[in-house]
UniProtKB/TrEMBL annotation, chain A:
Secretion signal, residue range per the UniProt entry: none
Main location: nucleus
Highest taxon in the source lineage: Eukaryota
Keywords attached to this entry: DNA-directed RNA polymerase, Nucleus, Transcription
Entry function: DNA-dependent RNA polymerase catalyzes the transcription of DNA into RNA using the four ribonucleoside triphosphates as substrates. Specific peripheric component of RNA polymerase III which synthesizes small RNAs, such as 5S rRNA and tRNAs.
GO cellular component, one term: cytoplasm
Entry's family note: Belongs to the eukaryotic RPC34/RPC39 RNA polymerase subunit family.
Name by which UniProt lists this protein: DNA-directed RNA polymerase III subunit RPC6
One record GO biological process: transcription by RNA polymerase III
Localization (cell): Nucleus
Alphabetized SUPFAM superfamilies for the sequence: Winged helix' DNA-binding domain
Classification via PANTHER family: RNA POLYMERASE III DNA DIRECTED , 39KD SUBUNIT-RELATED
From TrEMBL, chain B:
An annotated GO BP: DNA-templated transcription
RNA polymerase III subunit RPC82-related helix-turn-helix domain segment(s): 7-67
PANTHER family membership: DNA-DIRECTED RNA POLYMERASE III SUBUNIT RPC3, RNA POLYMERASE III DNA DIRECTED -RELATED
Phylogenetic lineage: Eukaryota, Metazoa, Ecdysozoa, Arthropoda, Hexapoda
Signal sequence, start to end: none
The organism's place on the tree of life at top rank: Eukaryota
Organism, as annotated: Tetragonisca angustula
Job description of the protein: DNA-dependent RNA polymerase catalyzes the transcription of DNA into RNA using the four ribonucleoside triphosphates as substrates. Specific core component of RNA polymerase III which synthesizes small RNAs, such as 5S rRNA and tRNAs.
Residue span, DNA-directed RNA polymerase III subunit RPC3 winged-helix domain: 318-395
GO cellular component term of the entry, any: RNA polymerase III complex
Pfam families named in the record: HTH_9, RNA_pol_Rpc82, RPC3_helical, WHD_POLR3C
Coiled coil (UniProt feature): none
InterPro entries linked to this entry: POLR3C_WHD (IPR055207), RNA_pol_III_RPC82-rel_HTH (IPR013197), RNA_pol_III_Rpc82_C (IPR008806), RPC3 (IPR039748), WH-like_DNA-bd_sf (IPR036388)
Domain RNA polymerase III Rpc82 C -terminal: 187-313
Listed name of the protein: DNA-directed RNA polymerase III subunit RPC3
Length: 311, 499
């Protein structure tokens, strides 16, 4: 059978010394490269009608075990897709454990995976696993990224991946630290911008609805204002700014509405009420209210807070 | 009713009516409805004193009586006692609506609980005579003012009868009395035998009406704040129109047609409002406060949504309280939870954009102080490991409002206690000043010389004067605070009334 396969492809054979298997392998790989979407058994039969089923299976299995192909199942038939050449690198000079760990990390994508989860999935001993991880890290196949969710938690992901915003925290984090001040400054600036818009209302002479409409600003407008200010070292997206604007909504200073064309509009508003009378008194904000009785250490008659407030 | 509410009521009664009334009321607080003999048994007061006290309490509407199998029983309505705190507000409101004389009439009625028309006019007349305000007392004017009060429904017929059986119609009666004006004048002049002819017709203050007016004021001022003066005025007109067609305390008004709103607005002098009426209606309707709803197919009718309005106002109040007590970041979390209904800790810190540690601290502080509630949701079918449980934060508005009402009670009680303490600890000085004042006025009347007056003024040392001024300021400040706290209390009770 081997000779038959070899002779039938005699004119194409570059080197008769090489194992005829390898020639077929090369051909299949070339075919797979030409079709990035993957090849099926049917494709192989059409391209190489003379190749027996048993041999084809052998070759495919070999290629799969060498990690050249990914195996998929599509509408009932098997689909072979060539692996990313960069990913295939691991195939060389790595043992089985490393490969498994690598594939687990690969699966996690740019969200990364915690060492404990790798251990559960791979069933490897902790010492062995950390050794493998170290070796992969040195070979620059993977990297460890500190997550913002928990400062001590390291997650592993492939070396060439950009970590997800849920891991880095997006624009609001610098080295796992939430930049509260930066957020506060942006919050204030956004409000200042909307507040200015609100002031324009007084000079508007086109009726109350028109006056209200000039106070609206789309998130894009605010984004432009903030970008022009140049207070941000990092580049902010409109979505980032919408997050800031939403904090203003939760501060009760700004209202959010949808415009007819689907964009989100913001405007500064006045609260419905002044601060209530209760908290104008000391008792309204008293920290020891729960201990305040007619007798005892805290009583209204000798209350230090009231005395201070009266003076 | 909570302990603190009881203490507050008790302290109000003791301030306004004295110890005995307070003790009787306290007894009714503790034991609910009970007959006279039992009150006597537990309070150890003489029967006549108890009867007097009950009489006062009934007169002011704090106690009601009813015939049961166990005999005639008395029970306390504590909400009415809390109304006393609001008397100054009612008086101020009536003063702005109907003028100074009306305020004085109202004050007389408030002081006596219920009273006949002729009597209140007589009393007010004498009071104006004595007061240095410069008002000229006149019986016809006072009668007019009294009628104005009745017309505005600030006063109503008191249906208190001497016997239990005579329960007449429960509807408030505003029929104007017909009494002999000449007889009233005669009585003022000192003729005790003249009969004005209304001896059985008593009047009392219609608190329901006044409460509704204060409620409307809140709504109008909220809209004025949110939008502008014109919108506030429009809201006021809408509320007037609401009264014409809706039962008081209904959750939403019956639909008000646009044409009527137009007519009402035309009558008042707000040119800008009349010009942009449609736009203003649109603005109030579209505002997130949801005070107004457009109804009907054609869209020409509007409903005032009182229930919703007070929910929004209660939220605004609570948000303000949280801001003041725990800072603006905590208020952000509070509003966020309100907005999302149920939310996890993780999401809170992400959406509120507060550093994880601070966000956790604030969230759990709010939880500890009962502003937030926590709800556990377990994944079904898995072990009870904590990692499989979701902890969702949410707000139970009614609970928080109720808690804040209690907070108001305590604050009021504390401030009152403090005021009493300030007065009693400086009693000697306050008395001295009073004595000096009477002495000076007496001497002035007898034509004393400047020297003599100066001599009396010197009786008080400068340090004493300073101290006195300080005490008076303190008492004044505490009094103002009481009124402010009551504002909050009023708003929150209004919310509870609608929900």
């Amino acid at each position: 059978m081997e000779t038959e396969a070899g002779t039938s492809k005699e004119q194409n054979a570059i080197n008769t010394d090489t194992n005829p298997f390898e020639i077929i392998e090369q051909k299949i790989l070339a075919l797979a490269q030409a079709r990035p979407k993957g090849i099926t058994d049917k494709d192989l039969i059409i391209e190489m009608p003379e190749l027996p089923v048993k041999e084809r299976a052998q070759i495919i299995n070999k290629l799969l075990s060498q990690g050249h192909f990914d195996l998929f199942k599509q509408s009932g038939s098997l689909l072979y897709r060539l692996k990313d050449p960069s990913k295939a690198k691991i195939a060389k000079g790595a043992d089985n454990e490393e490969k498994i760990v690598y594939s687990i990390i690969e699966e996690a994508g740019n969200k990364g995976i915690w060492i404990r989860d790798i251990r559960f999935k791979s069933n490897l001993m902790p010492t062995q696993l950390s050794k493998i991880l170290k070796s992969l890290e040195i070979k620059k196949f993977i990297k460890a990224v500190k997550s913002v969710a928990a400062s001590k938690k390291k997650v592993y992901m492939l070396y060439n991946l950009e970590p997800d915003t849920s891991v880095t925290g997006g624009a609001w984090y610098q080295d796992q630290d939430f930049e509260a001040e930066f957020v506060d400054v942006l919050n204030q600036q956004c409000y200042r911008f909307l507040e200015k818009k609100r002031e324009q209302m007084n000079s508007c002479r086109g009726g109350p609805i028109m006056a209200r409409n000039v106070t609206f600003a789309s998130s894009k407008e605010v984004w432009k204002f903030i970008s022009d200010l140049g207070i941000s070292k990092v580049k902010l997206s409109v979505e980032d700014l919408e997050m800031i604007l939403n904090t203003l909504v939760y501060d009760g200073k700004v209202e959010r509405t949808l415009s007819s064309d689907g964009s989100i509009l913001y405007r500064a508003i006045e609260p419905l009420l002044d601060s209530p009378g209760l908290i104008k008194s000391t008792c309204g904000v008293c920290p020891v209210r729960k201990h305040c009785y007619d007798i005892g250490d805290v009583t209204p008659t000798k209350c230090q807070y009231i005395t201070e407030w009266l003076e | 009713m909570s302990v603190i509410c009881r203490k507050l009521c008790s302290s109000i009664l003791s301030e306004h009516f004295g110890q005995i009334v307070q003790r009787v009321a306290e007894d009714l607080f503790k034991h609910d409805a009970r007959p006279l003999e039992l009150i006597c048994c537990t309070t150890h007061l003489p029967l006549t004193k108890i009867k007097e006290a009950l009489c006062v309490l009934i007169k002011h509407g704090f106690v009601v009586y009813g015939q049961t199998e166990r005999g005639l029983e008395y029970s306390l309505i504590h909400q009415n006692i809390l109304l006393i705190l609001r008397y100054p507000k009612y008086m101020f409101f009536v003063k702005t609506m109907c003028g100074d004389e009306s305020e004085m009439i109202l004050e007389e009625v408030l002081m006596s609980g219920y009273i006949t028309a002729s009597e209140v006019i007589t009393k007010t007349y004498k009071k104006i005579e004595q007061s240095p305000s410069g008002l000229q007392p006149s019986v016809p004017v006072l009668k007019e003012k009294f009628e104005l009060l009745v017309k505005n429904q600030f006063l109503t017929r008191s249906l208190c009868t001497d016997t239990v059986e005579e329960k007449t119609n429960e509807k408030p009666d505003f029929t104007l009395p017909d009494f002999n004006l000449a007889a009233v004048i005669k009585k003022i002049e000192g003729d005790n035998n003249s009969d004005p002819g209304d001896s059985k017709i008593y009047w009392k203050v219609n608190f329901d009406r006044l409460i509704q007016d204060l409620r409307d004021q809140i709504i109008v001022s909220a809209i004025s704040r949110r939008l502008d003066e014109n919108a506030g005025e429009l809201m006021r007109q809408l509320l007037f129109l609401m009264y014409l067609r809706t039962a008081s305390w209904a959750h939403t008004s019956n639909p008000i047609p646009l044409t009527e709103i137009k007519e009402a607005v035309k009558k008042i002098n707000y040119p800008l409002l009349a010009h942009h009426l449609d736009q203003y209606l649109h603005l109030i309707e579209e505002d997130s406060s949801q005070f107004l709803k457009r109804v009907g197919e054609s869209g020409g009718h509007f409903c005032v949504n009182m229930k919703e309005a007070f929910e929004q106002l209660a939220w605004a109040t609570l948000e303000n309280i949280v801001t003041e007590r725990f800072g603006s970041k905590a208020a952000r979390i509070f509003r966020l939870v309100r907005d999302k209904k149920y939310i996890e800790q993780e999401q809170i810190q992400q959406l509120a954009m507060i550093p994880a540690k601070e966000a956790k601290h604030l969230t759990y502080t709010l939880l500890q102080e009962n502003y937030l509630q926590i709800q556990e949701i377990k994944k079904s079918g898995v072990s009870a490991a904590p990692i499989k449980t979701f902890f969702l934060f949410h707000i139970d508005l009614n609970l928080v409002v109720y808690m804040e009402v209690q907070h108001c009670y305590q604050a009021l009680y504390n401030i009152m206690q403090r005021r009493e303490y300030e007065i009693s600890s400086n009693k000697r000085m306050i008395d001295k000043q009073l004595r000096m004042q009477t002495l000076t006025t007496n001497l002035k009347e007898h034509g004393a010389t400047e020297e003599q007056l100066a001599e009396i003024a010197d009786l008080m040392t400068p340090s004493e004067k300073q101290q006195l001024e300080k005490v008076q300021n303190t008492i004044k400040k505490l009094g103002i605070t009481e009124l402010q706290i009551d504002d909050t209390l009023f708003l929150l009770t209004m919310y509870l009334r609608y929900h």
